[in-house]
Amino acid sequence: MHMADALLSPAVGLGMDAAALGTLAWAARRFTREERHQEVIPLAGVLGAFVFGAQMLNFSIPVTGSSGHVGGGLLLALMLGPWAGLLTLAAVLVIQCLFFCDGGLLALGCNIFNLGFWPCLVGLPLYRWLASGRPGRGRRLLAAVAAVLVSLELGAAGVVVQTVLSGRSELPFAAFLPVMLGIHLPIALVEGVLTAVILQFVARTRPEIAAAAADSAGAAGGGWRRAAAGFALLALLFSGVLAWFASSRPDGLEWSVSRVSGREELPRAPAGLAAGLARIQEKTALFPDYSLPRRAPAAGTEATEATERTEGTPPAWPAVDAGTSLAGLVGAGLVGLLAAALAGLLLGLRKRMAGPAAGTR
Amino acid sequence: MSCHAAQTLDRHGAAAGPVQELHPLAKLLATAVFAVTVVSFPKYAVGALMPLCLYPLLLGVAGRVPARPVWRLLRLGLPLAALAGIWNVWFDPVRIALPGGVWLSAGWLSFSSILLRYLLTAGAMLALIGTTSFPRLVRALAGRRPAHPFLQVLYLLYRHLFVLVEEGRALARAWQLRSPQRRLPELRIAGSMLGGLFLRTETRAGRLHHAMVLRGYDGSLAFGADPRWGWRESAFLGVTVLGCLAARLLPLTEWLGRALLNLFGP
Amino acid sequence: MNRPPVLRRTGRAWENFVMEPVVRIRNLTYGYHAHEPVLRGLDLEVQPGECLAVVGPNGAGKTTLIMTLAGFCLPFTGEAAAHGLAVAAPNLAAIRARTGFVLQNLDDQLFMPSILEDVMIGPLKAGVAPAAARERALALLGQVGLAALADEFPGHLSAGQKRLATLAAVLVAAPDLLVLDEPTLYLDPWARRALIRQVAALPQSRLIVTHDLEMVLDLCSRVVLLDGGRIVAAGQPHELLADAALLAAHRLEVPGSLQPRPAAR
Question: Do residues C73 and C38 share a domain?
């Protein structure tokens, strides 16, 4: 599943962007060191396009009767190797984000990590290890399912962590994680089986390609194995710690500043640099901040001046202070009208003007 | 179909026009600044986000971006955004008191905020493509030397995207024509069909590589005169940044409302 | 940049010149798998300036022939030489520099975000300055009638336009030999006619592999029939393509313009 900008905070988004950029640069460097990388580039591009083409073919999922289509991460990683595979999956994500509104510009970093990193650096070695030698159909199936399962579940866990850390969604960690992991279980099963069937077909018709894919001797160098193992371990530790943290606090993961700083509310105008930073933090919500600024119209909707709390909510839950309500409401309405007018203008323009691309071919 | 919509949008980005002719990087940076701004608003921001609608809308109008493909593509992600955000309504324990003694979960606010964030960020990206077109964007990012392998792969992917989508569609259609009773192929058959597509794709890549070798292509993505960064680009970027800062830091919606109330009210 | 054909003097008199063929293939045998040769003892020559057509049924080895010339089917047994250079690893770059290949697929041969830049690949690679390369590319695009579409993304072009753009991109390097694999495939009649017109006006030696027998009649000075990996017949198009029995034996048909018209009633 793709992470969306709508659920993201700047800190998580930009942080993951930086991490993904670093990972891609590293992957590109390892890739260009490979001998025939110039030849692989066209293959990588076209296989990336294959992912989109393959998604045009829906198939029926046994037992459930619903339909699905292939994701393709492990297949790409198998055919291209970990480095080109990561670059290609990142390219697929960029296209999905820019054209098909799947994910977001800021969320690219998260998605590259969730949907690219795990299949290429964890799923691929797992598959190669399980399917080493000359695997029969059964072993290939097992290897594909296991590799896809691990990759997808790690990716799903990533989405959960990023969502919870961002603080835009109210989903409690303890509930969100099992649901995401659960949803991806059948998805991974189907994808794994389909990948195995495709590989079986390839092995039958062009055995040399299938052999090259499963060849663990082709794994570029030994150092990456350690790196991948390190990352995987880190991910497990991280999610384990968070899970413990979440379970010991049944009301969800709370990262409000007051908890972290040990105080009930934001410090009032402390002096110097800290004041500046606190003000910036107040204004830009760089850390998930559940409290609304006291004066500014963070939410210009109807609410009374009195802040209400429901019974049973722990006192640390901040109030929804909507600020000066009526003015905010009127202003929002006006902006809405303006936006609608612009949109209408857009539609009107479209009808009146011929598109620039219309014409003779 | 959404692919057709994407192609239409891309073609409009490649056309001539004052917005289209702006340097692609200016528009990309503006979109990035915009996205960061939208995402930086606190959880319950709805009204405060609304002035930001102006950016994608103005860009679309100025660039004469066609509305129907944009809406077609926006619709793709809308259900997912709604599904992601709707949980806030249940899980947010904070409630707001409305006049008349009615209680509203604050989750409705954050849900609306999430939907609005989706529309704003996705709209901005579609406006980017509709005024820039993907090839121009990639070209602006590549230098004159052999381009970075990631950009080469990205461009080649895009170049063959619609070709392969057509092939995939042809596969699906061929199945439908041969088995009208069974609406979808089962897993095993789909696997064979996709395996065939996969092998054909691999062959295509071989042909592509041959053609590149025969012409001595070295992986460059930009030869021609680079678009210039002039005062227009700086002005565009500057106005966008200022606008985003203003929307984020100033209570614009409230001021507007107060002004209107002062004008008409007592 | 056109180099004169290599002349060899035989005998005493100057009038006994023998021009070295641009392509010279003797007893060429090649197979993708060792025991299944696709080309079996093929003999072929392309003379300077001539337009030679290679026709034959599917699976005859026509595309393999082109791939061998291009240097992608090594090693083979027999001789193959282009421009006087043997087709072998050390000469491949030189051969490819002097030969323009227009391959079958429309989408696999245009690599740059605009066709102008695609056509510029050739001169830039030859060391021409960017401004001059741009001029030359524009001139070539004008020659094939695509000057107005110079900045277009290749994916937005029609089939005929892509074919002509590829032709321009190949011609800009001023090759001595042009090899075309099914050039009229996927083209509508108008685009097909435009392509034939362009190719007819070229001074280069041309080797055209095709199923389009009408085009062979319009364009080519000599035709060879390839089947089972070897040349089974050669001759003038108007004679060879009128031989119904020969064509039928190799899964071909006499083109419509050569068939006798039914008597008017």
Answer: yes
Kindly list the domain boundaries of chain B, sorted by start residue. Answer: 2-141+225-237, 147-214
User: How close A26 comes to chain C (CA, Å)?
Assistant: 26
pLDDT (0 to 100) of residue C26: 94
Minimal C-alpha gap between B173 and chain C (Å):
21
Q: Is residue A351 predicted with pLDDT exceeding 70? A: no
Q: Starting at the edge strand that comes first in sequence, how are the strands of the sheet with C99-102 ordered?
A: C99-102, C177-181, C205-209, C51-55, C222-227, C230-235
- Residue C124 and residue C249 in one domain: no
Mean pLDDT of C8-32: 75
Q: Is A162 helix (H, G, I), strand (E, B) or coil?
A: helix
Asked if B221 lies within 8 A of C97 by C-beta distance, the reply is no
List the structure tokens of A7.
């659920």
CA distances from A210 to A70, A193, A194, A214, C123 (A): 19, 16, 15, 6, 40
Among A151, A258, A135, A150, CA closest to A199: A135
Cβ within 8 Å, pair A58-B122:
no
Question: Does position A266 have pLDDT exceeding 50, yes or no?
Answer: no
Same-domain check for residues C132 and C78: no
Specify whether C82 is located in the same domain as C112: no
Calpha distance B102→B104 (Å, rounded): 7
- Domains: count for chain C: 2
Do C28 and C82 lie in a common domain? yes
Set of chain B residues whose Cβ sits within 8 Å of the Cβ of A200: 191, 195
ipTM over 0.90: yes
Q: Flag whether C164 is in a domain.
A: yes
**Terminus-to-terminus CA distance in chain B, angstroms?**
53
Residue-number span of the structural domain to which C111 is assigned: 106-174
On whether both C91 and C119 belong to a single domain, the answer is no
Residue C90, preceding peptide bond in cis (omega within 30° of 0) = no
**CA geometry: angle A208, A209, A210, nearest 5 deg:** 95
| Closest CA of chain B from A230, distance in Å | 25
Interface test with A, best of B121, B141, B166, B213 (most A CBs within 10 A): B121
pLDDT digits (tens, 9 = 90+) for A283-331: 544 333 333 333 333 344 333 333 333 333 333 333 333 434 566 666 6
Interchain CB contact of C68 with B (< 8 Å): no
Chain B contacts of C134, Cβ < 8 Å? 223-225
Nearest CA in chain A to C109: A42
Tell me how far apart the alpha carbons of residues B98 and B108 are, in angstroms, rounded to a whole number. 13
Interface test with C, best of A50, A208, A361 (most C CBs within 10 A): A361
Residues C119 and C94 in one domain: no
Does residue C1 sit within a domain?
no
Asked if the model's pLDDT at residue A110 lies above 60, the reply is yes
Q: Is C108 on the interface with B (CB under 8 A)?
A: yes
CB within 8 A of B7, min separation 6: which ones?
Answer: B162
Asked if the C-beta of C155 comes within 8 angstroms of chain B's C-beta atoms, the answer is yes
Q: Which of residues 22-81 of B touch A (CB under 8 A)?
A: 31-32, 35-36, 38-48, 50-51, 53-54, 57-58, 60-61, 64-68, 73-74, 76-77, 80-81
Name which of A6, A41, A302 is nearest B117 (Cβ-Cβ): A6
**Nearest-by-CA chain C residue for B215:** C122
Q: Is residue C118 in some structural domain?
A: yes
The CATH number for C24's domain is 3.40.50.300
In this prediction the pTM is: 0.82
CA distance B206 to chain C (A): 10
8 Å CB contact between A334 and B260: yes
- Same domain? C147 vs C182: no
In a domain, C196, yes or no: no
Please indicate whether, in this complex, the C-beta atoms of B129 and A102 are within 8 angstroms of each other. Answer: no
Residue C179: both structure tokens together: 């090899």
Q: Does the CB of B202 have a partner CB in chain C at under 8 Å?
A: no
